[in-house]
């Protein structure tokens, strides 16, 4: 049997990925959130945690043996070399779990939601990439409102991610989330019908449905 048809859902920070993800789930589509997998692979007893302690030192762990996420974040934030070392430990474990999850799904198609799908070169795990597109202006406004983050930190976070143009160039399907929040559900419903149809027709690489933001 061939592997399950898999869509990689991605987008910049506060683009609306979680919102789109929930809309797909409401339609019965199995969705795997990479953020959750990333937490699982560093839980006590998981192999990545021991490797982190080995490479970065035991001071990255709390006294109870769990990962000190704040210490780890402080170590890698704004330090690409250290981030690369951390990802070299965690990403292989994340990839294995994603493959296992895919193999267990019984549905016409499934979704893996990964903020850094393109940056981390995880596109080989999916058949198509669906980008939730939005303007930088909207990202900034949502980050300020949702997380109360300062403008300086927002600048830093956005600078660390790929640009809209880079994402648009590497995504087959694009859904704009710049207007009403409720509009995402309509776009998701349309894409759901499209994915079911191309899977039924054996056309997983059909031309994209592209509704980029103006
Ligand atoms: P992501 O998962 O990409 O970080 P979210 O789906 O969590 O993004 O959206 C970020 C924040 O912006 C959330 O608080 C969400 O409710 C809000 N949001 C998303 N899309 C819109 C929109 N079109 N209009 C208004 N608020 C939005």
Can you characterise this structure?
This protein is an alpha/beta fold and 214 residues long. The chain has two domains: 1-30 and 108-214, P-loop containing nucleotide triphosphate hydrolases (Rossmann fold), CATH 3.40.50; 35-104, no CATH class. The protein has nine helices and six strands. It has helices spanning 17-26, 34-40, 47-56, 69-76, 80-104, 136-147, 151-160, 164-169, 183-200, and strands at 5-11, 31-33, 109-113, 128-133, 173-176, 210-211. It has a six-stranded parallel β-sheet with strand order 2-3-1-4-5-6, with helices on both faces. The model has no long low-confidence stretch (mean pLDDT 95). Bound molecules: adenosine-5'-diphosphate. Residues 11, 13-19, 142, 146, 177, 179, 181 line the site of adenosine-5'-diphosphate.
What's the name of the CATH homologous superfamily of the largest domain?
P-loop containing nucleotide triphosphate hydrolases
**What is the domain total for the residues?**
2
- Report the radius of gyration as a whole number of Å: 18 Å
Please identify, by name, the CATH architecture of the largest domain.
3-Layer(aba) Sandwich
> What is the CATH class name of the largest domain?
Alpha Beta
Order of helices and strands: EHEHHHHEEHHHEHE
Rough shape?
globular
Distance between the termini: 41 Å
Brief digest:
By secondary structure, this protein is an alpha/beta fold. The protein has nine helices and six strands; from the N terminus they run E-H-E-H-H-H-H-E-E-H-H-H-E-H-E.
